[in-house]
């Protein structure tokens, strides 16, 4: 189990934090702040912020290192053990609990972070169980339904209809009807027509992003949340997960049932490296896909495709739902240039830097002005991002929620990853999650 791995890692870190030689990251000095991020699309925006920061702080230099997602977390974890960690790094809420528990993060209480200066909830998510702040709000994202307009037009579905869809775990509602109608088999039969061949589908109504592991961000989370379910017993730092809830299991059973009916691409079509939902859309294998705001530019860049977006469907609660994730900048406990790191993180969280980043039209920065700059930048590119921003502005019709923030996130993933793959790929009953949930809660109780 990952629990053993995590315990071993904690031991190695504890020894290193007290006894490792501080060899230092390449280029680290009293005049250099080392900064790591994983998104190559965002690097130019942060280079621009670094240039302005250096002008405001003569004598300080920001050295930016960009790594791919998988390499990023592997090398970051290894750097904590080897004593070569960066001064500052882009942090993910999914990893935050583990890093806070391992005490490798520097408290940021003295930076003067005002929670009201950012989009609601973003700053609060980075408070540890000990009451200290460990992350400075950076950006945010939500999930929406991307669709191929040529395919939806051919199916007779208008933008108004796609933005007005609703679902339920019984018959799937208008959402399932739309997905079925968008599905076409090799003989040209649509999913809702007599004679449809679910075993030989040419175009699926909905692409797949896999089983969703423990969070289901771009898979089932919009459905489980709009059914009234939440991951844990508390909004933050929960002590019990609720994957054994009937509301959760009925939503998941219905969602993966779309693949059994032939309306959603099967698990065998998914590959986390080479055939994600966006790849299926680009290849013309699917008409729609749920995906995050970080993918806006990717979908907009598909040659020959007119890609649009719609809000998530309304659920049994009468509301639409989307995860609202937010990244942050964290300082490492053993940063070699803590003074410079604090100045850099405070600047990254400022409206000045956030508006600069927003102007590149790549992500939605955490401050309202930064968000407005991003919306304007997307508009100049001819991209309408309303489906992503509306859920944040409209609390009456939308519910936004965060990644589950708990201890032992790596262990939760280690248990839920194969469990969800089994349900999606092998047809295992959703009630098997009762046992998985018990195992997870046993770990959390330790």
Automatic annotation (TrEMBL):
Keywords: Signal, Transport. Pfam families: SBP_bac_1. It comes from the Bacteria. Coiled coil: none annotated. Residues 1-21 form the signal peptide. Belongs to the bacterial solute-binding protein 1 family. This is Sugar ABC transporter substrate-binding protein. It comes from Streptomyces pseudovenezuelae.
